[in-house]
Amino acid sequence: MSGKLDFQPVWISITPFGHKSTPAGVGDFWQPTFSFPPGNTFSSSSANAGAASTQASNIPSSLDTFISTFTKAIHSSTVLSDAFDISQTSPQSYSDFVYHVIHEHLMSNGISDPRDIATFAAQPIVESFDVLTYPMLVRIKANAMGKYLLDEGILNDMNAASLASAFAKEMEKSAKRTVEKSFQESKFQALEDGYAGFLKAQGLYTREKLPVAAKYFGREIRLAGENFGRKPSS
What we know:
Mean pLDDT: 79
CATH class: Mainly Alpha
Radius of gyration: 17 Å
Structural class: mainly alpha
CATH architecture: Orthogonal Bundle
Number of domains: 1
Oligomer: single chain
């Protein structure tokens, strides 16, 4: 496989969370701050790094364990470290992919017009980042999945580490199957297949659950962009 991914999103306005016109199955949900386990913050300004450390101390212990365990699993795997390194691709190409794949997932599960949700997840990638770094992408994926599992009542202190390990294993299985060294964008599909596969394993790949999962992912990208992304010119 080679060449440019052949799709382009159409940016449109986003329906606010909880608005009565939001598609069925998409409602208000807990929106905690972009969180970092202690000792795993990103390089940034001292003010932002300090804020991230403070936020980390306030997150539920089960979520902290999930994020920490998943992050360590990625760092300790050559396959996963490579798959999460999409720094040689452009934010625009990843944004286009995210829009397309979320749109397709939702359409295939009976959401007739998923453009708002797909746009919410994809648009901030190009708005906030000149490059989406390896540690940033790991954190976005870990936060989005962990927070969603927590709010679904699936994640708790007893299973946080095992769920994180299972999530990493699903990602690794997908990466081994899909990543092509000569085609950097193949990493997009590998990460998406692993993410969707884990949602399926948890019973969350349904018409009611998928739109919410997509919004959790989009929310984490927005939070990452607000804290660590490109600053708007004054």
